[in-house]
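Hey, weird one. I pasted the Acetyltransferase (GNAT) family protein sequence into the form twice and got a warning about non-standard characters only the second time. First submission, copied straight from the form history:
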Amino acid sequence: MQEHKKLRESKEVRIVPYTPAYQSAFKRLNEEWISTYFEMEAADYKALDHPQAYILDQGGKILVALYKDQPVGVCALIKMTDPDYDYEMAKMAVSPTSQGKSIGWLLGQEIVKTAYELGAKKIFLESNTILKPAISLYYKLGFEKVAGHPTPYKRCNIQMELDLTKKR
């Protein structure tokens, strides 16, 4: 019964490209989860206060999940200058009131598809293992644990990558 409800509700989710109209939702949704588990850091404010300059103008993308036309989830694909990675999947957030509708899964799939369409070979991400549903989602999307990259975040204790050349 629960799976049927989840499937029905996920059909009401639309993933759309970011526009400036979603900037407050992008910031609010990310501040909400970060502040619940950690503290906001300088790197967070750069991306959340200036998504156009920090993400989009650099060749990245932001996707927004709408449920009944309300922004309830976001995820960014940040262009990297790292020789090993083309993009970082970052700033993924889903409103606590909308969790359980497969929104994270839908956003993650669409971000991976977008990176693939942009010709990316590898996607990188950073997270924290206390975020068990997020880590589980990343593994489900095909990410694998890696180590050794410098991070601007105190909260980061796991780094992962997705090799898209295995999909081609």
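That's the output from the first submission. The warning seems to come from a hidden character in my clipboard, not from the data itself. The mean pLDDT is 92.
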